[in-house]
Amino acid sequence: MVLTPSIRILLVLGSLLTVAFVLSRIRKSKMQIEDSIFWLAFSAAVILLSLFPEIAFWCSRFLGFEAPINFVFLVIIFLLILKQFYMSIKISQMDNRIRILTQRIALNQESAEREKMDL
Amino acid sequence: MANLLIVIPAYNEEESIQRVVDDLIQHYPQYDYVVINDGSRDRTASICRQRGYHLVDLPVNLGLAGAFQTGLRYAAEHGYDYAIQLDADGQHLPQYIAPMLELAQQGYDIVIGSRFLTVKKPKTLRMMGSYIISWAIRLTTGRAICDPTSGMRLLNRNMIQEFAQNLNYDPEPDTISYLIKNGAKVKEFQVTMKDRVAGQSYLTFMRSIQYMARMGISILLIQWFRKRDQSTPYPERSL
User: Which of A59, B65, B161, B235 is most exposed, with minimal Cβ within 10 Å?
Assistant: First the structure.
């Protein structure tokens, strides 16, 4: 299967919607700029592949795929898995921070209570 | 005398923090200061405690933006009129605080301690990023900011409030560009900076590419879509 015009239009529309959504989140101060960079770059990559299907065509022939669309899907899956991996690391770090913060608060409270009892 | 707070974010600065703060205490007693220890893994916090410095000790590492914002919340809660960021590695010289403060009192919102206002910016690889960011800010705001990556920035009371309570107000060039576009009055003042003597920079070489991508996309694209909201987003936490 080649990249049909309908698939290309769908990919472009989906990407533009993603960009619009991300920018509106930033506008409403609901998202950090760091976290938006990935989605903007991802959308740009998908739009690039849709507007210039030759890229997918060359790459799929070079890598020996049956159809260019498979290359497009592979790129999208790869980028999403990469993002998933980094998110996993980030969640681990956040988990760790929450643990440290919780312990800090509890220890502070304990020492405050003991000071009160000593007085 | 306007009251000014010197915010000193410190991450693993055990070798230089004492020199920097002792110099402030000895030669600049007219200014208040606060050290924000950003979850350092070395003896930064214990040195500060031992010597009785004003210290806010963050239990986890927040990064420069989070540490600086902590200092600004401290400034806002204690009613300071001005706040300036001074790096703990000693590269920012406190002798320039007085003239920068004078400029702020003339009505500027942000005064940047700039290395390249009257001095030519060297054409080195290290400065390439600075050139690109200056160009991006010029393109989007029409204003020339000669040293956008300088960390030595003095903020007035309005800016302290705004930086202290909002998301996406990192002390970085993209915030400067966004604020200029939204009518903030920004002024540069020529300073010289020392090379760092000890410790390591927040910005490692690996991170510079990431930093540049972020700044480029942020200044050229994202800042157009932001809406400046000067009312407090969290009324229950208003400072």
Answer: B235
